[in-house]
Amino acid sequence: MLKQIFYSHLLVIVTAVFFTPIAVGKPAISLPGTKQLIQGVYTQDLEAAGYFQEGVNRYTEGNLAAAYSAFQKAVERDPSIAMAYHYMGNVLLQNGRNADAIAEFSKAIQLDPSLAEAHYNLGIALYRQGRLDDAIAAYQRSIAINSRNPNAYYNMGVALYEQKQLDGAIDAYRQAIALNPRKVNALLNLAIALEQQGNFDEAIEAYQRVTVLDPKLVTAQISLANLLVQQDRPEEAIAAYNEAIRRQPKDPVAHYNLGMLLYEEGKLENALSSLRRARKIYEDQGNNSKATELTELINQIKQSWETKK
């Protein structure tokens, strides 16, 4: 009975850790290339061109307020400068003014529908407002114009995943990885989606690639170990937990999950050692509730061990 209780407890921890690495994050803002803008001819009005160039310079310096003011003056002189509206949208997006950013990106797109960056950044603003269908459509339009932007595929995958469209999300993540094989967040989200889809072998392979590309991302190493546990591959799981601990000795979840797995494998002394380390880390973190919980579990294991003797 005790073994069953601990196994259930392990599964709870596995699930909690599994959901941790979802890299929804903040999608990257696609900033126009300054050199290209300087060389481009966007207006025949010399005064508007001067304001536009000033806006580009201030934007490059990181002075967003001055850049926005200059771009406003540019479009007051010539309302047809699509890239000026795009820049203003970027400024607003970086300031968290998503609704206003949507309006500016929409103006830019209306004037120049070929601006892939404007469609892409419009997708980010729409995503931040929870308008997932519209965001996906914006990313798709961006990709139709420029199919070489891995961030567009990645962000579309994030939105599709939130809509529980696993097949679409997996395809989008794979497209992002094909363009940038070192894109860790896409690989990580691909692994998570594959695991949820039940494609465990490919999920394990994806987690393994993540752990090679980013050794500091211990949550991926733990997720790999958790999946190996679920697939009844305990020796590989133990090795994966130990690797997570080697990389981040102060991660209590790795010690805890390792301890529970060792208990399941009948390695009681090693299990107790791992659980005590987890408890000590929780105590050092001031997480007294977790430390108390672990004390109770350790005592139960010790009592079971003594009974078996």
Automatic annotation (TrEMBL):
<feature type="repeat" description="TPR">
    <location>
        <begin position="48"/>
        <end position="81"/>
    </location>
</feature>
<dbReference type="Pfam" id="PF13432">
    <property type="entry name" value="TPR_16"/>
</dbReference>
<keyword id="KW-0802">TPR repeat</keyword>
<protein>
    <submittedName>
        <fullName>Tetratricopeptide repeat protein</fullName>
    </submittedName>
</protein>
<dbReference type="InterPro" id="IPR019734">
    <property type="entry name" value="TPR_rpt"/>
</dbReference>
<feature type="repeat" description="TPR">
    <location>
        <begin position="116"/>
        <end position="149"/>
    </location>
</feature>
<feature type="repeat" description="TPR">
    <location>
        <begin position="150"/>
        <end position="183"/>
    </location>
</feature>
<keyword id="KW-0677">Repeat</keyword>
<feature type="repeat" description="TPR">
    <location>
        <begin position="184"/>
        <end position="217"/>
    </location>
</feature>
<dbReference type="InterPro" id="IPR051685">
    <property type="entry name" value="Ycf3/AcsC/BcsC/TPR_MFPF"/>
</dbReference>
<feature type="repeat" description="TPR">
    <location>
        <begin position="218"/>
        <end position="251"/>
    </location>
</feature>
<dbReference type="Pfam" id="PF13414">
    <property type="entry name" value="TPR_11"/>
</dbReference>
<feature type="repeat" description="TPR">
    <location>
        <begin position="82"/>
        <end position="115"/>
    </location>
</feature>
<feature type="repeat" description="TPR">
    <location>
        <begin position="252"/>
        <end position="285"/>
    </location>
</feature>
<dbReference type="InterPro" id="IPR011990">
    <property type="entry name" value="TPR-like_helical_dom_sf"/>
</dbReference>
